[in-house]
Amino acid sequence: MSFAFKNPSDGWSQMERQIQKEIILSLYCSITDPINKLILMASYENDYSEQDIADMMGISQVAISKRLKKTIELLRKLHAEAKL
Length: 84
Fold this sequence. Notes:
The chain contains four helices and no strands. By secondary structure, the chain is mainly alpha-helical. It has a single domain, classed as Orthogonal Bundle (Arc Repressor Mutant, subunit A). The radius of gyration is 17 Å and the shape is elongated. The two termini are 28 Å apart. 6% of the residues are buried.
């Protein structure tokens, strides 16, 4: 088996990043509420502010903040349970 990496550390870094992506994806897929998924994606992947998301969804910024906090707590709990 041969690898297309210039040195072994490049390959390890790429594998680490891929593993991290897989972990994040599996945690993301465990979020059952589609609205919470949307809020998380808008906030962290697209860098929208809580107020921007609230304006787009027609709900208060406080509601967005609570949903985001609840979702992040869930992800932390799942991550801890998986011991990843």
